[in-house]
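Quick one: structure for this chain?
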Amino acid sequence: MARIGNGRSNMANASARAKARKAGLIDSTRMRQLLQQGPDTIGTSIAEFGYRTEIDIYAGRLSGADLIEAALNHNLDTDFDSVLRFCQGRLKSMVAVYVERFSYQNAKTVLRAIHSGASTEMVAGQVLPEENLNNNYWLDIIRNCNTLGDAANAMSGTPWGLTLSKMDADSTLQQMEDALDSSYYSEALSSIRGPDGHPLLERYLRNEIDHRNIVNQFRGLRQGITGDDRETLMIHGGKINKAALKAASQAESNEAILETLRRAPSFDDTGFEEALQASSISLDPVVTLLQEQRRNMMRRFAHLNPISAFPIIHYIESKVLEVQNIRLLVRGKAAGLPDEVIEAHMNL
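Got it. Here's what it folds into:
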């Protein structure tokens, strides 16, 4: 991951273009209208909301939820490329820091596919369609590699490949995924620090790290992971200090973890008790609460800094949320879930 460049930026133009794109996203009212439709008509509706090109690409071989999901992923990938193209200089470097997280996610997808023995045809058909030329790099790795070590070697020359090359040959899939997560945030923070960086973007990323660590604490406790092992799951670089995280790792109940986190000045416990009480089946209420906190922070930064990288990053984050909501909607419909259950899991 390169450091922030010093080239001339086009902050005003790019910010205006990002705001215009954000205004065209599917709002909560239209999303609820989609929720009232049947699985067969949702595809027709979202085509009118900007997904027609990608739906047409996949309509020849896919249908239903598979068609919509492939179109969503392709559209999102194309959108990332388009946004980066209309950003210039230092601005482009800052936006790229945020966007590169999706390459790390693809690297993890490839590792999972190889670990599970999934065929290239299955991955190309369901996860990384060949119609999206950006996926060829990832599919070639799956096609030509038999082991996780082979995949790590095939990714050499990339930031994620460099991370994997430093790991032991017998590293597990989980260890590789954890290393990739840590590496992304470490490289991202390193690239935006200094006189040419952006302190508010650093603040946002550090907050994101804290939220990942918080979820890992509660999830680790629920899964019966020992305190020492939970401590190793922590990603460095957040605002919550190491001492607080170490103490939380040794806590043996949700209440004890929450009480320990409250001692950290940067921890916002607003709504946390209610979210934990609602988390008897899954941690979704906690995850949703933290996501909302991050969205509020991003929204505030974009509002207070209208000519900066934040309107662009805010648009990207909002676009990702739109895709996630539509994907959840169509998969929920395909599974026959009641509308109220689907809506409860959507971020509207």
